[in-house]
Recover the amino acids of this structure.
């Protein structure tokens, strides 16, 4: 690699990681001020674990993330199968458009329009509306992850099973599904983290008693830097790090490129 | 298995996601469009008219007569909305340009790295993408604020005499946008660059082209579909970005996402917020169509490269 390429790469990685490292370092800072290092301390983690409302909203977020990722996992896998296996069916272009549009749509639009629908049909805002909203925007991401795996799949295994007399359902359950299972799990994890992270859509569609963790964090960081939030962030970054390691292990090294 | 149940299975696989997305993605847009023609009201829900289902034909007539263009007239008359639209597009365009400048050499370097390092580098770029967006933007506050780390470092080095007001400025917003969207730029670019046939650059080198010449005449033109896909993937959500201008921009930073947010949450003017949403949608629909075409071309190029 040339010196130029090395430098570019080092700078880009520094740019990506410096803020995260600063955040993690200052979660262990005894002082409340960012510029003053007051010595190593875990007191903000203590403050964090005694913060009842914050823990309650973390539980809301986890519940929403599991449920919405499960729905998005099923819907996204179905969509990926339809696109990969059903050939050039009528309306295929519109189908992919509808599937991928929620991924790039500005979140304020998705959030506002879903809220207006929920109010219009009289659905009470809370966990259910959060789950529906998150499943809707995560489905496309799951479809991308599973679709990439389906594309690289060796079709001869399925053909062999079919030649040996297995029906389509049997072929799917005993050949296709086990082969794509790692990517379905990776898609589920991606949908899970996307849900856990979402602030904008959740702010629109959640109701009283269903405050998610990002909503709680946002209401605190608007007032400025807060060491307790640094501690919470560090824990979340550690959790995500583990999830990413798990996902890249599941999809195999080649599959990590989403 | 019977022909019927086979077709039923295929229909379910294709139909379930379609039904869900039509119901929770398309229908909401129709509802938003309708409410953008309504008037705000101090009622539950806070807009008028509300269709009375038992009103019959007369009810429908009254309903449609009560809809008007007043929210759009207000948006057209008030310079705030025009300025917010222009500055959203400006921020997104400038940040996209910065991302192309940072992302292209990064992706190029990743594609040129040894086979052992490539998956590790890809993982390093993906990890921040999986980490909370809100937290990563928040992390910049401690760095950019007047008594923050960047200013402290610059003061200590004697480069500046007084702290620079980077936080709460357009510059803060641009840093935040470039930072948060970098993985979205690098990954599609890397995907294209890593699939380029090395024989092409080797041929250029054999014919006497230097590294820079090879990059600009061979690699860059072939990577254009990836650059286009990455640029649009970043540009579209950045136009409607809310968190970054809210946390890193000043109170005078105008972006449509933020205007929509305050119309909805502070002013509780749902119809006007809907009209702003429709305006934002019109701004991004062109880029969304371009994005789809760029993606299709990128996929074709990728499949062509594999043969």
């Amino acid at each position: 690699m040339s010196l130029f390429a090395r430098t570019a790469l080092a700078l880009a990685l520094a740019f990506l990681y410096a803020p995260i490292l600063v955040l993690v370092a200052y979660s262990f800072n005894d002082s409340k001020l960012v510029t003053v290092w007051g010595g190593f301390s875990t007191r903000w983690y203590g403050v964090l674990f005694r913060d009842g409302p914050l823990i309650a909203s973390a539980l809301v977020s986890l519940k929403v993330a599991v449920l919405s990722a499960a729905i998005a996992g099923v819907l996204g896998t179905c969509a990926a199968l339809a696109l990969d296996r059903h050939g050039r069916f009528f309306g295929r272009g519109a189908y992919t458009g509808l599937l991928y549009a929620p991924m790039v749509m500005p979140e304020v639009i998705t959030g506002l329009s879903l809220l207006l629908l929920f109010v219009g049909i009289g659905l009470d805002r809370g966990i259910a509306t959060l789950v529906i909203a998150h499943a809707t925007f995560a489905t496309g991401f799951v479809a991308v992850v599973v679709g990439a795996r389906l594309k690289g799949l060796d079709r001869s295994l399925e053909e062999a099973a079919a030649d040996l007399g297995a029906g389509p359902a049997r072929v799917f359950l005993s050949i296709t599904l086990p082969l794509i299972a790692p990517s379905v799990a990776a898609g589920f994890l991606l949908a899970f983290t996307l849900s856990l992270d979402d602030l904008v859509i959740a702010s629109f569609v959640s109701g009283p008693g269903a405050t998610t963790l990002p909503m709680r964090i946002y209401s605190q960081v608007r007032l400025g830097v807060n060491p307790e939030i640094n501690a919470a962030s560090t824990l979340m970054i550690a959790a995500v790090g583990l999830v990413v390691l798990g996902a890249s292990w599941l999809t195999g090294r080649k599959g990590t490129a989403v | 298995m019977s022909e019927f149940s086979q077709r039923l299975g295929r229909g379910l696989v294709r139909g379930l996601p379609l039904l869900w997305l039509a119901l929770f993605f398309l229908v909401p847009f129709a509802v938003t469009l309708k409410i953008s023609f309504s008037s705000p009201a101090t009622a539950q829900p806070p807009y008028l008219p509300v269709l009375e289902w038992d009103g019959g034909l007369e009810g429908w007539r009254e309903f449609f007569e009560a809809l008007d263009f007043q929210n759009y007239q207000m948006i057209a008359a008030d310079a705030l909305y025009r300025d917010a639209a222009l500055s959203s597009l400006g921020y997104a365009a400038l940040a996209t340009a910065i991302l192309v400048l940072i992302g292209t050499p990064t992706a190029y370097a990743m594609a040129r790295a040894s086979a052992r390092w490539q998956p590790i580098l890809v993982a390093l770029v993906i990890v921040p993408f999986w980490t909370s967006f809100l937290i990563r933007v928040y992390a910049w506050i401690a760095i950019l604020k007047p008594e923050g780390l960047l200013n402290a470092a610059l003061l200590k080095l004697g480069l500046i005499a007084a702290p620079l007001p980077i936080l709460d400025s357009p510059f803060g917003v641009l840093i935040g946008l470039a930072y948060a969207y970098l993985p979205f730029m690098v990954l599609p670019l890397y995907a294209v660059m890593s699939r380029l046939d090395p024989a092409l650059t080797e041929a250029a080198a054999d014919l006497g082209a230097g590294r820079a010449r090879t990059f600009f005449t061979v690699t860059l033109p072939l990577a254009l579909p990836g650059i286009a896909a990455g640029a649009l993937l970043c540009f579209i959500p950045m136009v409607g970005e809310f968190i970054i201008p809210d946390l890193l921009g000043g109170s005078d930073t105008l972006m449509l996402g933020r205007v929509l947010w305050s119309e909805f949450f502070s002013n509780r003017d749902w119809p006007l917020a809907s009209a702003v949403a429709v305006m934002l949608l019109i701004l991004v629909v062109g880029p969304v169509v371009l994005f789809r075409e760029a993606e299709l071309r990128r996929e074709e190029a990728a499949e062509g490269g594999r043969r």
Summary: The radius of gyration of chain A is 22 Å.
